[in-house]
Specification:
12 strands
């Protein structure tokens, strides 16, 4: 397993996931399998659909229930998408927005959800992406893209350091980051 030691943080990991992008998804947004850290138990699937701008759903494999969804409006300059996360305790969908922030060096997104602002940032040249509140009060989660010799499918290790936010937010954000990186580097 690739270590995620490039970001210093004193918080212990609450939960770890292994995320693997499907080899082929055609012209749709990427599809992913989300496993526990041992890579033995499939927990969630991200499925994508052919629509204008794209749509993905996050499905809890055990209940076969959709617990998150994201729509991706077309935007030629910077990414902006709307998402919803199902809150089991209130039995309601809570809407949010994720937008790419223009930055010359680092790759940055702002996630607005349930009156919270979360910054997702990848420093230039790093394979590690961190999530923290906009006021920089500590890292909530981080993921690292695994380096592979072949570009068959992207793989990620996600470490959740706080249960402040639903883990579904991180899964959807990884799908967006993966898609935008692929689009940007196609040339």
């Amino acid at each position: 397993m690739v270590g995620i030691s490039t970001v210093n943080n004193s918080k212990p990991t609450i939960r770890s996931y292994f995320i693997e992008k499907d080899f082929f998804s055609g012209l749709k947004l990427g599809e992913f399998s989300i496993f526990d850290s041992t890579k033995k138990q499939l927990l969630y699937r991200i499925e994508s659909y052919y629509t204008i701008g794209g749509k993905i759903e996050l499905i809890d494999v055990s209940s076969k229930q959709t617990i998150g969804q994201l729509t991706n409006p077309l935007n030629l300059l910077l990414y902006a998408g709307n998402f919803s996360i199902f809150n089991l305790s209130s039995n309601q969908w809570i809407n949010g927005k994720i937008e790419r922030i223009f930055h010359m060096i680092n790759d940055k997104y702002i996630i607005k959800w349930n009156k919270r602002s979360i910054l997702m940032e990848t420093k230039f040249g790093s394979l590690t992406t961190t999530f923290e509140y906009e006021n920089h009060s500590g890292i909530l989660a981080k993921f690292e893209k695994r380096s592979t010799l072949f570009i068959w499918s992207n793989k990620y290790d996600l470490q959740v350091l706080s249960d402040d936010l639903p883990h579904a937010i991180y899964f959807l954000a990884i799908a967006i980051k993966d898609h935008n990186s692929r689009v940007r580097y196609k040339g």
